[in-house]
Amino acid sequence: METNLPSANNNSRGNLPASMVRLVGRDPIVELIHDAVASKRLISIVGAGGIGKTTVALAVANRARDYSDGVWFVDLATLQDGSLVSHAINASIGLTVHSGDALAATSRYFRSRKALLVLDNCEHIVGDVAACAERIMSEAQGVRIVVTSREPLRLSGEHVHRLLPLQTPSEDKGTTAVQALEYSAVQLFVERARDRLESFSLRDDEAPLVGAICRRLDGIALAIELAAMRVDAFGVKGLLRQLDDRFRILTGGRVGLQRHRTLAATLDWSYTLLLEDEASMMRALSGFAGAFTAVDASAVSCRSLAETTDILTELAAKSLLSIDGNGPDAIYRLLDTTREYCASKLASRAEDDAVHIRHAEHLCELLEEANYRSSQRSAVELGRYLGDLRKAIVWARSNPSLVTTEVRLIAAGAWLWNQLSLTDESRLQITRALEILSATEMRDTQIELTLQLNLAGAVLYTRGVVPEARAAMRRALDIAEARGDADAQLRCLRVVGTYELFSGDHDAGIATLESFLKIAAKLHPDALPEGETHLAAGEIWTGNLRAARTRLEKLHWDILPEPEDGQPLRFLYDNRVNTLVVLAHAQWLTGSPREAISNALKGVELARKANHELSMSIALAWACPVLFWSGLHNECADHVAMLDEIVERHGILTWRPTATFYRGALVALAEGSRCQGIEIMGNAVDQFREIGQTSRLPHYLGVLAESLSRQGHFSEASVRIDEALELARKQNEQWCLPELLRIRSAIPAAGVEGACREALLRLSIAKSDEVGALSWKLRSSLELAGLLDIQERTEEARQTLEVALAQLGDRFETRDMVGALELSSQLGCR
Q1: Is 132 helix (H, G, I), strand (E, B) or coil?
Q2: Of 509, 542, 550, 581, whose CB is crowded by the most CB atoms within 10 A?
Q3: Which residues lie below 8 Å from residue 194, measured CB to CB, with a gap of 6+?
Q4: What is the pLDDT of residue 567?
């Protein structure tokens, strides 16, 4: 028995439908499979179309109680491309992936979890499903998988349950109604007949006829449902006659049909009973991959909205459509088997090209409106079109004459992939579109601009600062400037500026972002915050800390306290999150650690509420150093673990080295594990260089050098700190220069002793004053005071600390503040 699936109720424990039609005649098999799942890791429910595989699988899943990490339903019926099986699983479980290997991310996610996966309707991509299931089970021992398909996956350890038809009475003219209702097929018939005709009641004289109907339909649940829903029109006797006549025509006079043809015959019979406008609508609806609205149906059927709504209502009443909701917001869906049948009818009448073109055109208009014309429709609302987008692209790709349509679909889909954080899928599709662009007339157009711009952003966040990203952003900027498209120029300049900052070319990045602000001020003031935030980051790195803090605090007042649900992301991330965490850096460096810690944590929480993985990864990557510098090592470790998790789950390559580095830095704090921490930090430095991200690398090298020195590796520490100082000079990273000088002063192997060490610390303090880095000044002043105290220069030591402490209005108990207050107290007592 097939069932109408209502909207999923997504939560951390799964996404099973909140309700379903009553299960008829399947309790024993459900119990058997439920028991088998407890001991078998892979169960396949196999049977003919319409026999009720999905219903049984859902019943088994709804009885599952022992899966702490959820029971997840994945409908693969609409998936045309088998390579996207893992993407479909990830979407169902709420796992967004930014890496090039979605299946690896799926397996990593489930590795330490106990969960049940239900993979429904697998027969058309059975090989891809088998490969995916095998990989997940090999890496995630706590996962059980239930598959529904018309054929097994043929994997080792697979436990196959062949679903038999519902039970039907034998051919006995004396069967009473009570006797007939002992059979599950009759029970289903009566239930569905009552859904259509409330007064229906099985009489003794009709019981043999209903039994005959169920036998004619081979006990196939969907066929019985379709027949029962016509009882109001034909009555039981007329219904049996209709079926017999129809089957006789189809089989040249033989009443019996082979079981695998029964459902097709029943669908054919149901279809021939439709009015022509209903049949035409059914054929058009087969173009959709999944759910649709009356507006969608109107677009693909070329009928008015009012006429379309009337037809859809009647088709739903005849059980040919499922419906969820009422009025203009109602969501419709063809049952999977019905969709297959109608698609064959569409093709046989040579209407498929026209319908698919209208379908693709409708998708393009929806998504282009969302992207180019700032539609108010949210990504959550438009997310249901993801399956349609994939289906339309596959269809266009199969026809070489539709290359323009394929490119346009991909360009329109870039907005949706971005909003749903499907960054790697976006990158792969856009790369394909650009490869075939020369076969279209779309070069130098808005379409190419959209493709190049989205490719640059996707590559930057998934593969790092690589030449592919630079080439794409430069090409996009050339097109935007030639077209005089100010909004696109802003998008391009923002990506170019980010690239330059990431790659350590800070002066160029600042110049680019200043150009951004000039254009935005004149033509798009609403884009100013994004440019201001990035410019402030550049100002931080180049040591203009006071200006950066002022800029960011002004921006902070304009931040909404809560993210708006479904708010579109103009620049791939939530800028409110960016503003908070960049401000946190500026505040910490300029001597306000209390405010810095508060805003860093607020940024993480805001990103969590925004429910956007790229934004969350940015928040965590900027929060970790603030917590580390403050000596809040437990809190830092928690946030590093969160960043590690999000990087691992979603493949956000950009922040992997950051997570690795701070994990190593924390490990290196403990004497017994310092060598291990040093090794981890060294690996992180290599990772930064591999992806071309050298911004802040001087600081990372400095922390590594200090750990090496503490371990007694003075020669290597000297090499690392000299490397850090040279890179800071080359990249104009003034923000961390005071800290690097302090670290340099403390490495004995460098020949830095006595007066030379004092000179370096005083230089560090002077540099701190120059750039406004009061927190670095406190740290260097603490070390200088300690050095002076050892030399019995107590008054100089006390004054050094007093000056540094006086400049800090924030006496939050960071590691440095606690040390400075303790030493100051000791010095005051002498």
Answers
A1: helix
A2: 581
A3: 200
A4: 43
Tokens of 497: 């500026």
- Cβ-based neighbours of 255, under 8 Å, separated by 6 or more: 216, 244, 247, 248
Region 564-575 average pLDDT? 50
Count the alpha carbons within 13 Å of 812 in the hemisphere toward its beta carbon: 18
Residue 498 has pLDDT above 90, yes or no: no
More confident residue, 698 or 54: 698
Residue 443 CA, distance from chain mean position: 30
Q: For 87, how many CA atoms within 13 A lie in the half-sphere containing its CB?
A: 23
Coil, strand or helix: which one is 147?
Answer: strand
d(CA 363, CA 369): 10
Judge whether 263 and 50 are in contact, CB under 8 Å.
yes
Both structure tokens of 405: 């349509």
Residue 437 burial by Cβ neighbours in a 10 Å radius (0-12, 13-18, 19+): buried
pLDDT reading at 794 higher than 70: yes
Report the distance separating Cα 39 and Cα 792, nearest Å: 75
pTM of this structure: 0.72
| C-alpha to C-alpha distance for 677 and 670, rounded to whole angstroms | 9
Alpha-carbon separation of residue 93 from 70, 123, 141 (angstroms):
9, 21, 18
